[in-house]
């Protein structure tokens, strides 16, 4: 009897060790419920980003109102942001306290970091195809798109490892908003496709001044011909266009190479002449473009309503606005025959919760954001495009695109041209590999350009030695010297390590021993009695 | 048999414990890899102090005379803190001669707590201008001057200076503007929770002011009072003379006077 008691005690201790190993903090993986419980009320939070654009805010509010009318037992609380970075920071803070939002606008890069905790982010692969609650499922009470109706290229961007962890919400790319009037005044004709050589050449030509120090092209004291808003995109796009490495899909860092060095040295040359600058250093490209102080302004197509002489959204005093013709073009290319540009724009993810019904409510809301009404109305606020073929091919959306330039508000020509630029280049767009640390790598790519630009402006010597030191600094600053850790998310989806396999095998063996021992003891006892 | 079983169990238990410990460490490291920018930041200082060389502290006049992108070293007193994140602090500082806006200087959270109004600090960085706002650029370093005097500026009345070219000479200083008429109040997101854009009129001209959410927060008296302002109210406001495509003071206090 004593022996049996001892064994039971040991088994209890062993069971305890098992449970402690796997941590009390871990949340169970989400399992799709068979039914959605409409007898209970659910309150979910939605953290959304807008482009300092009240129309977008109102579309979010209208979508929530419409959704709540369909599902009266779900209340959606909207929290608004104007900056992806802030959402990212707040989510990280709230992961630590277990208070993440239910649904969140995000970038796939960010999700890779959110996934460092177990089961934080709900995988969507099974949800997509669930017969009842999947995309356009039988129990979904609104007309949602099917999985096939989500543009495959955009959906693939939301795949991390083997599972989908997000759905695209809107897509955009970068555009070069060009002051065509000034290009022609300088004696140039815009090519069909902008090249880097052309942009650099015109930018340098625009630096000529008169005897009073005014720039000849605009007659002003200020002219920064080429301003890039997102320098991380700039470096990433240049490398991709040249087919030069940036990273591997598993998180191996390849950014710090000789091609990057030569690109940085070229950027330094044009910074030296003051022909090039960045948003972080000088300000918004749109403000300089609209004031006639910039010729090539590169920014997202999602910022198109701020661009041009007749822009509906303006940040500069009216008296500073200059009249000029704006051309909306793809970003400069190294190979005009084979253009490449980044695919960007918001996606949505769902955070896991204790109650699967709450998660299901979140999924239903997220699915609602893919309906035609939401997709089309939001895309019309900026140079975004809907992420479903269902919306893109709808008569309503086609009619909208056809009415380019009918007014300077809803049909603002620059905005619709920007959207068309993205639609025409879906197959030329690309994304970078997503892994835990890819956000840091992206930051480092941009910081290389920012640092070079700052250093040149500060009359510091930027040469090969400087770049080598910069590589070391960036590697250290962004912890890019440990690629295995950077690829943490990928490895978390990989097979168990050898140590774990050995441990599990050992535990199984012991349990077999225990059961055999108990069986033998029982048989012996029975025989004895 | 029983002895072997007990030894085996003890061994497995020990292994389980060790495995648990390793798991925790790995998680911590992964988290750091993913959120690595929280630990470091780019440092841009004017002087190399490693060799003991300390750049000369500039007067406000010297600072103003310095060209953009030039290295600068200044001493001033903290007036208000706007934000801290990722070891970067953005603050308003001022001395008896003028004011300095310091954008994202390198600062630990612990040091940020020490930057109470009046604290004298030495800042080492580069002068820059962003959308017209002259400031000390991101990446500056600072030190608290131990044992120094303290100074909290009184707002200078710039009502009469509004709309004149002289106003820029007061950039970043704490100032007051009196008898302004509210022309518009607009929440950045259409509802409370972020910046508030306020248009105030005086003598037939309109001026853009802002309640900067990071500077004031939303639970403060100033945020609540401005949220409740109505067109036609007459107000006295205090704030820092920030610049964004022209003067755009960041309001820190408001009193409805009519």
Topology:
The complex is a heterodimer of chains A (529) and B (258).
Chain A: H1 2-21, E1 42-49, H2 54-70, E2 74-81, H3 84-97, E3 103-106, H4 108-114, H5 125-129, H6 152-156, E4 159-160, E5 163-164, E6 167-168, E7 174-179, H7 180-185, H8 196-205, E8 226-228, H9 231-241, H10 258-272, E9 276-278, H11 279-282, H12 285-290, E10 296-300, E11 326-330, E12 341-342, E13 347-350, H13 356-368, H14 372-379, H15 389-392, H16 395-402, H17 413-424, E14 429-430, H18 438-457, H19 464-477, H20 483-486, H21 488-492, H22 498-528
Parallel strand pairs in A: 1-2, 1-3, 8-9, 8-10, 12-14
Antiparallel strand pairs in A: 3-13, 4-5, 6-13, 7-10, 7-11
Helix pairs in contact in A: 2-14, 9-18, 10-18, 18-19
Chain B: H1 2-34, H2 60-65, E1 71-85, E2 88-94, E3 99-106, H3 109-114, E4 120-130, E5 133-136, E6 141-144, E7 156-157, E8 174-187, E9 196-202, E10 205-211, H4 213-216, H5 221-227, E11 234-240, E12 250-256
Parallel strand pairs in B: 7-8
Antiparallel strand pairs in B: 1-2, 1-4, 2-3, 4-5, 4-6, 8-9, 8-11, 9-10, 11-12
């Amino acid at each position: 009897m004593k022996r049996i008691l001892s064994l039971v005690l040991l088994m209890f201790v062993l069971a305890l060790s098992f449970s402690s190993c796997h941590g009390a903090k871990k949340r169970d993986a989400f399992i799709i419920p068979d039914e959605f419980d409409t007898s209970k009320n659910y309150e979910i939070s939605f953290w959304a980003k807008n482009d300092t654009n009240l129309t977008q805010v109102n579309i979010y509010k209208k979508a929530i109102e419409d959704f709540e009318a369909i599902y009266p037992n779900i209340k959606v609380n909207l929290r608004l942001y104007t900056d992806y970075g802030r959402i990212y920071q707040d989510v990280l803070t709230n992961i630590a306290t277990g208070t993440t939002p239910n649904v969140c606008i995000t970038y796939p890069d960010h999700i890779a970091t959110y996934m460092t905790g177990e089961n934080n982010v709900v995988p969507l692969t099974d949800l997509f195809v669930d017969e009842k609650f999947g995309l356009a499922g039988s129990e979904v009470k609104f007309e949602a798109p099917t999985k096939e109706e989500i543009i495959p290229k955009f959906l693939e961007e939301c795949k991390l490892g083997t599972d989908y962890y997000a759905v695209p919400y809107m897509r955009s790319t970068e555009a070069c908003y060009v002051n065509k009037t000034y290009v022609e005044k300088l004696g140039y004709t815009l090519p069909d496709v902008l090249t880097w050589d052309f942009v650099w050449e015109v930018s340098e030509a625009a630096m000529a001044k008169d005897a009073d120090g005014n720039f000849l092209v605009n007659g002003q004291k200020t002219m920064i011909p080429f301003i890039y808003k997102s320098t991380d995109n700039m470096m990433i796009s240049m490398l991709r266009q040249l087919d030069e490495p940036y990273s591997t899909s598993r998180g191996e860092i390849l950014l710090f190479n000789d091609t990057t060095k030569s690109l940085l040295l070229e950027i330094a040359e044009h910074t030296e002449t003051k022909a090039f600058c960045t948003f972080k250093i000088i300000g918004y490209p749109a403000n300089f473009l609209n004031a006639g102080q910039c010729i090539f302004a590169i920014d997202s197509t999602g910022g198109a309503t701020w661009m041009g002489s007749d822009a509906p959204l303006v940040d500069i005093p009216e008296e500073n606005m200059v009249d000029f013709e704006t051309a909306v073009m793809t970003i400069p290319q190294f190979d005009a025959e084979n253009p490449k540009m980044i695919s960007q724009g918001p996606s949505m993810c769902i955070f896991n919760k204790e109650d699967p019904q709450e998660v299901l409510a979140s999924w239903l809301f997220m699915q609602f954001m893919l309906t035609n009404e939401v997709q089309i109305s939001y895309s019309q606020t900026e140079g975004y495009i809907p992420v479903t073929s269902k919306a893109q091919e709808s008569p309503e959306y086609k009619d909208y695109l056809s009415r380019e330039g009918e007014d300077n508000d809803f049909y603002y020509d620059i905005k619709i041209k920007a959207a068309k630029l993205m639609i025409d280049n879906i197959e030329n767009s690309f994304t970078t590999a997503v892994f835990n640390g890819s956000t840091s790598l992206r930051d480092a790519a941009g910081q290389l350009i920012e640092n070079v630009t700052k250093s040149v402006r500060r009359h510091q010597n930027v040469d090969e030695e400087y770049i080598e030191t910069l590589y070391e600094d960036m590697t250290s600053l962004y912890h890019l010297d440990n690629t295995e850790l950077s690829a943490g998310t990928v490895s978390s989806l990989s097979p168990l390590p050898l140590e774990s396999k050995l441990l599990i095998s050992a535990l199984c063996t012991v349990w077999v021993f225990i059961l055999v021992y108990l069986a033998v003891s029982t048989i012996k006892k029975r025989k004895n009695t | 048999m029983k002895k072997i079983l007990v030894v085996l169990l003890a061994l497995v238990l020990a292994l389980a414990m060790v495995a648990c410990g390793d798991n925790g460490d790995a998680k911590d490291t992964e988290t750091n890899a993913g959120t690595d920018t929280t630990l470091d930041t780019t440092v841009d200082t004017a002087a190399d102090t490693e060799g003991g060389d300390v750049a000369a502290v500039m007067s406000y006049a010297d600072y103003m005379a310095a060209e953009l992108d030039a290295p600068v070293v200044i001493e001033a007193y903290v007036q208000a803190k706007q934000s801290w994140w990722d070891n970067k602090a953005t603050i308003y500082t001022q001395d008896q001669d003028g004011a300095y806006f310091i954008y994202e200087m390198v600062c630990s959270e612990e040091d940020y707590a020490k930057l109470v109004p009046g604290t004298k600090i030495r800042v080492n960085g580069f002068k820059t201008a962003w959308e017209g706002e002259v400031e000390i650029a991101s990446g500056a370093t600072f030190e608290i001057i131990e044992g120094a005097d303290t100074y909290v500026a009184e707002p200078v009345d710039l009502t009469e200076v509004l709309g004149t070219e002289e106003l820029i000479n007061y950039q970043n200083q704490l100032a007051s503007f009196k008898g302004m008429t509210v022309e518009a109040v607009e929440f950045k997101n259409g509802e409370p929770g972020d910046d508030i854009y306020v248009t105030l009129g005086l003598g037939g001209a309109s001026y853009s002011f802002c309640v900067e959410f990071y500077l004031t927060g939303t639970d403060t008296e100033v945020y609540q009072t401005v949220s409740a302002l109505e067109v036609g109210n007459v107000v006295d406001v205090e704030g820092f003379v920030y610049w964004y495509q022209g003067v755009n003071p960041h309001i820190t206090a408001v009193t409805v006077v009519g």
